[in-house]
Amino acid sequence: MFQWLTVSPMSMALRAVVRPIAFGFVLVSSLLAAGFGVGAADFILFNGRIVTLDKNFSVVEALAIRGNQIEAVGASSNIRQMATPSTRLIDLGGRTVIPGLIDSHIHAIRAGLRFGTEISWIGAHSIKAAMARIAEVAIRTRSSQWLVVAGGWTPQQFKERRRPTRAELEAAAGNHPAYVQLFYGAALLTRRAAKLLDITSDQDVTPKGRIERDAAGMATDWISGNARSITGLYARLPQPTLEQSIDGTRLFFRELNRVGLTGVIDPGGYNLAPRQYEALFGLWRKGGLTVRVAYSICAPKGGDALDKFQTLLEDLLIASLTRGMTCSAMSWSDFLVRPSSTQSIPAMTSSPKSPVTSRNARI
What pTM, to 2 d.p., does this model score? Predict the structure, then answer.
């Protein structure tokens, strides 16, 4: 089995895990062979398998980075000639290097908002292990802190092949209010959490939620319902601060980097308000964006949606002129946010049909 490695010319951080790749490979080994000069490299990766994804799907031994771009790929003997005393040489030891991957449909913006304040059950293979993660957070936080597992798990990952019970959740959470969500169809709350949300009957989980009951009519303590009911229940939980959402977005993007992703296409969603994109822009303004993000902003309501979008775009432009982020208008509500840019800002125009009519707008 290969150990995969991606390269980040933007951050110059090279690890045997994933980092963002900037602009793809530039195959210039033929220039080296022909004797044309190529600048000295800042980083050289050699003795590996570099998957270039050129038209021939070439696999070469070495790769050179200068500044924020791939300078050359080719044989290790040729690429190492670009080294200077200040060049960092990295022996791949036969490992494989690939360009960063792009997830074409992922709700990354929404996931990042609470990623730093929620508990993940990914990789937990038993209910006991899952409860241990809750107990660990409960021990080091105040009893007023909500403990939330907002999806990302399935009963089939546990050796018990079942959902946890309220008794198990309360034993792990102690006096903390705790909430566990299963996909968009069910949620489990501790008694304290249910009290704080004022849930005592089916009528408290609108529009179609219900408290599950067993064959004897006894409550199982799980709440089930359609997607609107469960997302509405989730929306009643305490909201993270903007700084917490920025930090959560940073952590989630790093997690995406770790598994090979350096770009995402986020389709938005009816339960993601335009203002919830502020964490994405906030992370960029801090210089911490490690993933290219193409995203859509969905209209929360009809009627005056166009006016609201235009106001939102104007606010985002004003707030974002302090750095060189790229925001390329793919349509009137679709944008591409890149980690960095040095290009200038063209004039922005608007019309009744489109708040942004200029293409490749730099903000």
Answer: 0.72
